[in-house]
Design a protein that fits this description.
By secondary structure, the protein is of the alpha/beta class. The chain contains five helices and five strands. The chain has helices spanning 17-33, 51-55, 86-97, 115-128, 140-144, and strands at residues 63-68, 74-76, 79-81, 104-109, 132-135. Strands 3-2-1-4-5 form a five-stranded mixed beta sheet, covered by helices on one side. Helix 4 links the parallel strand 4 and strand 5. The termini are far apart.
Length: 147
């Protein structure tokens, strides 16, 4: 039995306000939780070499070649050295400098040498007052085309 004969039936409608509220909450959640990486790429300018710089190698100031092996052994100008602490290595560097004011320290370290062994050479150079320290690297061309 229908007791509401004279009244019109209401049309069903979709209420959009709760749906908009839910979408705004999702949007706010996404904005807050999204991480923006501003530093995704580091812009690094690498030094370049030319053949003319290699020809001027004879004009370079006095250099001291320090080699660090994978086992932690050190050589200065291809002479094996032993020392007990950083001050000992500093003294060895100063004796290899032969009264030069500020020689260039060239560190050649094995790829499997520990970071600490390289830092020890750098610290000894700093203690000796030498601020020109550089590293040697092997290019991929030299690896692929051995002479």
């Amino acid at each position: 039995m229908n007791f509401q004969r004279g009244q019109k039936k209401e049309e069903p409608e979709i209420n959009l306000v709760p749906m908009i509220d839910v979408l705004l909450v999702i949007l706010i959640f996404l904005v807050i939780t999204t991480t923006y990486s501003k530093y995704a790429d580091l812009e690094i300018t690498l030094p370049e070499t030319t053949t003319t710089e290699a020809d001027k190698q004879s004009e370079r100031p006095h250099t001291i070649d320090v080699t660090v092996s994978a086992t932690g052994n050190y050589t200065i100008n291809q002479v094996p050295i032993t020392f007990s602490n950083t001050e000992g290595l500093r003294n060895e560097l100063q004796s290899a400098a032969k009264n030069e004011k500020n020689p260039v320290i060239i560190i050649t370290a094995d790829a499997k040498a520990t970071h600490q062994s390289v830092i020890t050479v750098m610290e000894a150079a700093r203690l000796a007052g030498y601020n020109q320290v550089t590293f040697t690297t092997e290019t991929t061309e030299a690896k692929n085309n051995p002479k």
